[in-house]
Specification:
single chain, about 850 residues, alpha+beta, Rossmann fold, Topoisomerase I, domain 2, Topoisomerase I, domain 3, six-stranded antiparallel β-barrel, four-stranded parallel β-sheet, 32 strands, globular
């Protein structure tokens, strides 16, 4: 019997089927050992010796593997074909050696790039030994990450309360997010105008932009205000244009290569809105296999790869599929070959592609995430082997008769769509303008002006990072490895160092301060070049050109003394250093020249950086007499990356309205003091879009919609814990959006409330009213017949009386109802019944106790009899 060990149980069944009855396939369920999460698991003083720990679940699985391996002919380690897979095989082998179950057993290592019968059976024909150079690279990375985390994190805990952790790659990724935010904050917008015209020159209209005005070529900021822009627009309207020149330059657009881990994560983010973790989870399922026609089939090749090369049989498959689906014109003369940019060839496996292009995504019934991701991979692979798109880059120059005014239109004319018929890469910036498509135009033709307009613009700061652009930037800088990006970005979110706003990374205050702390005290270790250089050294370990312990010694000899040095610095000195580093940002100069550190609340204290268990903030030195605080990140114009700023002054109260960001998100606040009025931003409202009008609308909630036509009681609209609502007489009905709180009218509110009551649901709402009987003769309160969960009943105040069985609720009169309510009130309620039952029980307990004690005398009597 041959024992095969794979990582995932999902692979075991199809692989066992491919190999037959002479093989038994068992799963390790991923890593079987790890470093215990405590100090001392990696010991630099003992030449970086490591302690490994097997958790309870893995121990059971390893015991099963050991029992199966004992007496087997072969042990075949078939874990994933990457560094982590190599490490898992090594761990399994080390445990089995310690268990001494491998006597006489041949140990082999095999790898396959896809869970298909061909890939698996071919791999079994080419066994090898475990690649210890890859294992050494794994050990070096694991040791480095452990040493940085367990040495640097305690420094953060002691010097920056509220901070949770630091990491070798995590901290550098966070620095990228923070640096981009600082760029945005420092950016100052500049106004400029453009003049455009819709023009036709014998064909379809096209868009042209003003390039020359009053005989002068225009630069971006030449039209800097409305006056100059409108004058230029009027000049365009008054001019008569002809086509002065048409320049056509043939060009080709070549398809992108098939996916790597990084490009898959980027494109899935752009086109599908998936984060890196969601992408990798879906890809893992596609790789391990999907049940198709009763058989588990792996749909894609291995999804952790830096390579873009493709197996020859896959190239042939692609070319045949393209010819069959799109025709021979779309098949290039020769297959396309792509080369990887990865510096470490051992990790540059085949690109991510479908195992068979014959499995068209349109014919497969997959879960939504799997289906969308598979279609993306399928199209990318098909496109990568298609003919280039042939285009004509066209520039059309239009000039007025006097030569004083000129317009230009630029765009592409597609002559042959090629791979664009199937696939076009997504863009990092969704607001980026697409290249215009121009109609054919003849030089010398008269141009007809259809319309012209002047548009105002403002320069914009660089955009915040999306998952796609951050992954792309990290890969460009050589920070980390694409296979780790999903977990790294997940840690930043889990630690609350960043938050996602419109699918963009925004640093939280604690994330910003951690980055500034590391830059102040551990600058070298968060430098982009240093981190990238360390990756190159780890690649050298994988390549067998550098001993992994030499790398660790060099790193530790510099890093450890620095942590000891920083630990000796007092927390107050650390805060003072950070306060000084942040001073230009935290306390920008005021327009009136006054001291920016003076507390705006008490006027006597000075502002300074403080910290609490929830993280850092700016506070007044007169605490606790003065409790003024604000988030650390505030710029000259009062904006903060968290959205904190002054919105304006409430004309009714004269108090300032603030937009702030708290532990539970953004909110607006009226004035300062002990308990100022606050209102959270509802779902769908963005902090950057907030203004005074919106803030006041929130603060003045609940809003009175009007009076209910049935009873004249007010209907209120507001936003509560469970979202926007309308309220009347204790009944709440949900509104679809927060905006409708400010727009809903009486008719709409009455309809929603009626629907809610008719639904008969418990909770806040009242049961559906079947009949209004009028006022009770005793107190004038309303008496109603309602539809309840257990049938119709009569309600008066807090008293409910069932409508007798068989009685039509619509036929009940007020007199009957008053009588039924009186009978019900005379009976004890459920709560009263329970009280009576408890009292009766308590009264009976002494008698019961006495009865139980009586037999206690019998043993004594028995004893006496025996003595006699």
């Amino acid at each position: 019997m041959n024992i095969v060990v794979v990582e995932s149980p999902g692979k075991a069944k199809p692989i066992n089927k491919y190999l037959g009855s002479d093989y038994k396939v068992l799963a390790s369920y991923g890593h079987v050992r790890d470093l215990p999460a405590k100090d001392g698991s990696v010991r630099p003083d003992e030449d970086f010796d490591m302690s490994w720990e097997v958790d309870a679940k893995s121990a059971k699985r390893l015991s099963d593997i050991a029992a199966a391996a004992k007496g087997a002919d072969k042990l075949i380690l078939a874990t994933d074909p990457d560094r982590e897979g190599e490490a898992i095989s090594w761990h399994v082998l080390e445990v089995l050696k310690k268990k001494k179950v491998l006597a006489g057993v041949t140990v082999q290592r095999v790898t396959f790039n896809a869970i298909t019968k061909t890939a698996v059976t071919e791999a079994m024909k080419a066994p090898r030994d475990i690649d210890m150079e890859l294992v050494d690279a794994y050990l070096a990375r694991r040791a480095l990450d452990y040493l940085v985390g367990f040495t640097l994190s305690p420094v953060l805990w002691r010097k920056l309360p509220g901070s949770r952790s630091a990491g070798r790659v995590q901290s550098v990724a966070l620095r990228l997010v923070v640096d981009r935010e600082i760029e945005i904050e420092k950016f100052r917008t500049q106004e400029y105008w453009t003049v455009e015209a819709d023009v036709a020159a014998g064909g379809d209209p096209f868009l042209a932009r003003l390039t020359k005005h009053e005989g002068k070529r225009l630069s971006k900021f030449d039209l800097g205000n409305e006056t100059s822009a409108f004058a230029a627009r009027d000049a365009v309207k008054a001019a008569t244009f002809t086509v002065a020149a048409v320049e056509k330059r043939p060009a080709k657009r070549s398809p992108p290569p098939p996916f790597t881990t990084s490009t898959l994560q980027q494109e899935a983010s752009r086109k599908l809105g998936f984060n890196a973790q969601r992408t990798m989870q879906a890809a893992q399922k596609l790789y391990e296999g999907i049940d198709i026609g009763g058989e588990t089939v792996g749909l894609i090749t291995y999804m952790r790869t830096d390579g873009v090369q493709v197996a020859p049989e896959a190239l042939d498959d692609a070319r045949a599929t393209i010819g069959g689906l799109y025709g021979k014109d779309y098949v290039p003369e020769k297959p396309r070959f792509y080369s990887t940019k990865a510096k470490n060839a051992q990790e540059a496996h085949e690109a991510i592609r479908p195992t068979s292009l014959g499995r068209n995504p349109g014919k497969l019934r997959l879960e939504p995430d799997l289906g969308r991701l598979y279609e993306l991979i399928w199209k990318r692979m098909i496109a990568s082997q298609m003919e280039s798109a042939r285009i004509e880059r066209t520039t059309i120059d239009l000039e007025s008769g006097d030569g004083q005014t000129a317009l230009r239109a630029s765009g592409d004319v597609t002559l042959f769509d090629g791979y664009l018929k199937v696939y076009e890469e997504g863009r990092d910036d969704p607001d980026e303008e697409e290249v215009a498509k121009l109609p054919p135009v003849v030089q010398g033709a008269a141009a007809k002006m259809i319309a012209s307009r002047a548009d105002q613009h403002f320069t914009e700061p660089p955009p915040r990072y999306s998952e796609a652009s951050l992954v792309k930037k990290m890969e460009e800088l050589g920070i980390g490895r694409p296979s780790t990006y999903a977990s790294v970005l997940g840690v930043l979110r889990d630690r609350a160092y960043v938050r996602m706003e419109k699918n963009r990374f925004v640093p939280e205050d604690k994330g910003r301060l951690v980055t500034i702390f590391l830059e102040e005290f551990f600058r070298r270790w968060v430098e982009y070049d240093f981190t990238a250089g360390l990756e190159e050294q780890l690649d050298l370990v994988s390549d067998g050109k550098l001993n992994w312990k030499v790398l660790l010694r060099k790193f530790w000899d510099d890093f450890y003394p620095k942590t000891e040095e920083v630990l000796k610095v007092s927390t107050r000195d650390v805060l003072d250093a950070l306060d000084g580093a942040l001073a230009p940002f935290l306390y920008p100069p005021k327009a009136d020249g006054s001291d920016p550190r003076v507390c705006p609340n008490c006027g006597a204290g000075r502002l300074g950086l403080k910290t609490s268990r929830f993280g850092p903030f700016v506070g007044c030195s007169n605490y606790p007499e003065c409790r003024f605080t604000r988030p650390i990140a505030e710029s000259e114009d009062g904006h903060t990356p968290s959205g904190d700023r002054e919105l304006g002054v409430d004309p009714e109260t004269g108090m300032t309205v603030f937009l702030k960001n708290g532990r539970f998100g953004a909110y607006v606040q009226l004035g300062e003091g002990e308990k100022p009025k606050r209102s959270s931003l509802p779902k769908g409202w963005s902090a950057p879009d907030m203004d005074l009008e919106k803030g006041l609308r929130l603060l003045r909630l609940p809003r009175e919609v009007g009076n209910h036509p049935e009873d004249g009681q007010p209907i209120l609209a507001g936003i509560g814990r469970f979202g926007p609502f309308v309220l009347h007489a204790g009944t709440y009905a949900n509104l679809p959006t927060a905006d409708e709180v400010f727009e809903v009218g009486v008719n709409r509110a009455v309809a929603l409330l009626a629907e809610k009551r008719a639904g008969g649901r418990g909770g806040r709402g009242e049961a559906a009213a079947l009949k209004d009987l009028g006022a009770h003769p005793a107190d004038g309160a309303p008496v109603k017949v309602l539809s309840g969960r257990y049938g119709p009943y009569i309600k008066h105040g807090s008293t409910n009386a069932n409508v007798p069985r068989g009685t039509d609720p619509q036929a009940v009169t007020l007199e009957q109802a008053v009588l039924l309510l009186a009978e019900r009130a005379a009976k004890p309620s459920g709560g009263a019944k329970k009280k009576l039952a408890r009292a009766a029980k308590a009264k009976a307990e002494p008698r019961a106790a006495a009865a139980k004690k009586a037999p206690a005398k019998k043993p004594a009597a028995k004893k006496a009899k025996e003595t006699a």
